[in-house]
Amino acid sequence: MVRLDGQSPASGHRPPRKRLRRWLLSTIAVLVALLLFGAYGWQPAQADFRSPYLDMMGSKYADTAVARFHYIRAGSGSPVILISPGGTSVIGWKDQVSVLARDHTVYVVDLPGQGYTRLKDPDFGYDLAAMTTALGAFMDAVGVRQAGLAGNSWSGGWALAFTQRHPDRVSKLALLDATGLDLPGTWMWEALKIPVVGELATKLSTSKSTVRSLAEGMMVNKDRITDSLLDEWWAPMTFRDNIRATYLLERRLDWAQTERALPATNTPTLVLWGRQDTIQPVERAHRFAELLPHDQLHILDGCGHAPQLDCPDPVNRHLQTFFTN
Q: Which pLDDT belongs to residue 325?
């Protein structure tokens, strides 16, 4: 049938397949734009929070060319430096400071991208070379030539890398559920290595409810996850520099370097591990013990990935004995 104007009745309508294709392409374009905006444009609100813990302990700052390092200091005696666990702040060692301060000058420091430290170096690399250089700069700034070091998770890996590069500056090393082995992380952490995905996932993980879920996933003794601990844990995670540091560190930290150097790491080392660690499985503790020539290994039952928060009493006993003897 032909209309009087000479056109077929269907000629003014697009075929359904073409309309569907245009709709799909438009939808995909909108989703990509939203993902890119979320990854590179949007910024979560920064926490408006005054830390009761830091008010009580007394925050200190050490200015260097690398960063304005935030730290707390307590006690007197031979120095012990506790490095804030990756992704949190000095609150990560809150239960150890007073115990170790009976015999030692205890420093708890936020390295760049953690806690309340503020980066100055615009070319900071967020790799092992950068993090170990930062730790050395902090030690120089506070006048510590040699110290015992302790780290948990990422900060254990940084302490290990520093020890391997500067063995003369480390008297003893304590690794608590530490990174440092050339093994993959959980799918959640591996996802941060993917561009766009990593940026967006890190930003979305800064809500207080997400931080609670992360803490509950890491710790066995849930009653220790108080509202006050969560506030202290969560607030620095909302800082823009710390958000950026999280996905850059996951992409740039090369643990093959530290694992290769383990057999030649002669510093006395304490390996403490939570048996129920869901981030760094307990088998990795035995791998460290196999490769380190001078180590003590203790597996803590009923403890997760952050044993110093999860099971402070046995952790304190082991650290006190190790550093004091």
A: 84
